[in-house]
Amino acid sequence: MIKEAIILAGGLGTRLRSVVSDLPKCLAPVAGKPFLHYVIDHLKKEGITNFIISVGYRNEDIIHFITKNFPFHASSDSGIKFQFSVEEEPLGTGGAIKLSCEKLIGTEVIICNGDTLFEVDIKRLGNFHQQNNADCSLSLKPMTDFNRYGVVELDKDQSIKSFKEKQFYKTGLINGGVYALNAAAFFDENLPDKSSFEKDYLEKFVGKRKMYGLVQEEYFIDIGIPEDFKRAQSELSGRF
What we know:
Shape: globular
Largest sheet: 7 strands, mixed
């Protein structure tokens, strides 16, 4: 089972400025708690023990939140470990993952976003990833009547067939932003220090590398826009 996770938490949150003050997006308050709390809590429950938090904008706020609210991060007895990968300048999602991977203990890692909660079954994702000897396995969420996300098409063997652009779709599978990644294979691509994981890795190498998609029907919320940030307030109330 994969025990390590990288949480991408360097976003500016510019689209939330109308409803949230000058905070990193992952610390936007949802139902009385910074949103990052829900992401970490879910991963803990799924068996993640080594957390690497990728930070950039206002990184001191995120580091303070972790050290204050998850005091076990410094305890070797708890089995839980937190590390921080600090971007001195914006590197993009690909660059942030590349930098964070330098802190890994093993080869396989879960990647997720600090502003999205997709309550996937991590053990199931990890097993699927390893059974397919995949370079990258995506968690896919079925959606209806949407235009905010692109669509991921699968082949019969669940390998990724294509990524389709954002537009209105009646139904489709979206990339939920939770990945199982073979870090060694990712490093072998020699991507630049600044890159987009989605554009420069996933879309560039689809059909050329072992990329698979696992459909999961679990709860999903992305607080990147004010409407969904507001929806999260009621949906996550009393969750943890």
